Amino acid sequence: MAYEIPVTQARAELAELINRVVYGGERVVVTRHGKPLVALVSAADLERLEQDRQPDEEQVISSVSALGSSASAAGERGSFGLTAEHRRPGSRG
User: Fold this and answer.
1) Domain definitions of the chain by residue range
2) In CATH, what number does 1-46 get?
3) What is 23-86 written as a DSSP string?
């Protein structure tokens, strides 16, 4: 569970909050009008969060690039009512 603190109070206690995050291992959420604005996390926590997110991004990229131009797309053109198709410059057809 993260420690929540209003932005006005966080401004006055920034040094203490940094110490709580770095040495106490806490996560601090700074709020405005009760809504979360930012979170203070240690550099080690941030690194872990970024590493955890990276495989998901790579999975999406590989999935999208694997789609490429699908062979079934050409056969489905008529069913979607497309009246034009892109041709590379110089190709005849």
Assistant:
1) 1-46
2) 3.40.1620.10
3) HH---EEEEETTEEEEEE--HHHHHHHHHHHHHHHHHHHHHHHHHSS-HHHHHTTGGGT-----
